[in-house]
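re: that complex we talked abt at group meeting.

here r the seqs, copy pasted straight from the sheet so there may be weird spacing, ignore it
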Amino acid sequence: MGAGIAEDDGPSYFEKRHPRLHCTLMMVLVVVGFLPLMHTLWNSIYGYQEQPEFWVKVPGVEGLERGPGAAAAPVFNVTLRVNNKATNRPFCAGRVSAAVAYAGVQLARAELPNGFCVPGLAVSSVPMSATSDGLGIPSELYERMASQRRRHARVSLEVQVRLDDCGLCGPPPVMLWCTAVLHGRPKGPFLCTFAYMLKDGEPLPQTDFVYSS
Ligand SMILES: *[C@@H]1O[C@H](CO)[C@@H](O)[C@H](O)[C@H]1NC(C)=O
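got the structure back, here u go
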């Protein structure tokens, strides 16, 4: 009985035969065992490499008039909200463009040629003003929006945001597909879906309208 225990405590056959290999194996095991701990430690110091969450608000709208004869172009004040709380690394984009559409028709565009930077551990707002060369909005869309409002139905806008040169995202531009509610419920906010644009240089889907008169 006692002999069995003594045998377990002593160096094994393998250890006696290959002392250096045994030592190396033990070190590898220790390092592998510590990797998750090191990873957690690294992340708690430098933050998890997580994409921020994005959502969009449209706090101000002007010039949603019936197209022919309208006096002004539509203006959508768009706020891109960036939740970068999951990391303490800043999130930056070198260039931003946004397209505002209603019922699948693009009504206005915005550009931020200098991009933005959001610090880590923060939620920040990126304001943009989207407008158009055309005056007012097409009659059909105007009617549709008016009817939705009369019925107290939800009037929502599709906002596509393109981020170029955002450090952590990698070389291809990033597209954010967002919904902003102008009227009705639920109001949101709805998180934007995040997608890489694999074919660089491909423009946003254009369904722009222009009133030339
Ligand atoms: C939109 O934003 C611009 C500039 O920030 C401001 O002057 C304008 O009053 C805003 N319009 C609305 C309808 O909120």
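couple things i noticed - Residues 13-46 form one domain. The mean pLDDT is 84.
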